[in-house]
Specification:
This protein is an all-alpha fold and about 140 residues long. It has seven helices and no strands. The protein has one domain. Pfam families: Transposase_24.
Length: about 140
């Protein structure tokens, strides 16, 4: 019972909580890839899906602001110039949320670290294919 209270307390401190429950981010990526006929999603797509409830509402006002900014950036990039979606340092998610800090890469799950992506300069398709192979091998 004490652990449950601690978890509830820690969860309430999150500023932009996800509403995916026990579904992992690699699983969300797999679902989004299947929905788009094999095209891997961007980190922005994963963020939006993980902060959107089943009824279509956004989890909270702070996450709603981020989702709005993501949509604005997508509209700007599609109308002005088409930025490479494989660039982690300059994708829509990085433009809205800022550069990655030390440690894990946001919106891809706990399997990957920053160094595994940025040092090897992997693209999104490589990232998500390795994510899927690791998550399905268990």
């Amino acid at each position: 019972m004490e652990q449950s209270a601690t978890n509830r307390s820690n969860r309430s401190k999150l500023s932009e909580p996800h509403c995916t429950g026990t579904r992992s981010f690699p699983r969300i990526v797999e679902d989004l890839t299947a929905e788009s006929n094999g095209i891997p999603p961007t980190r922005a797509d994963v963020y939006v899906r993980s902060r959107t409830r089943k009824d279509g509402s956004i989890v909270n006002s702070r996450a709603a602001v981020v989702v709005e900014r993501i949509q604005e950036k997508r509209n700007e990039s599609s109308s002005s110039e088409n930025l490479s979606q494989n660039s982690w340092s300059n994708d829509v998610f990085a433009q809205v949320k800022g550069p990655e800090r030390r440690g894990l890469v946001r919106c891809v799950g706990a399997v990957h670290t920053r160094s595994s992506f940025f040092s090897e300069r992997r693209g999104l398709s490589t990232l998500f294919s390795t994510t899927m192979s690791r998550s399905t091998c268990a």
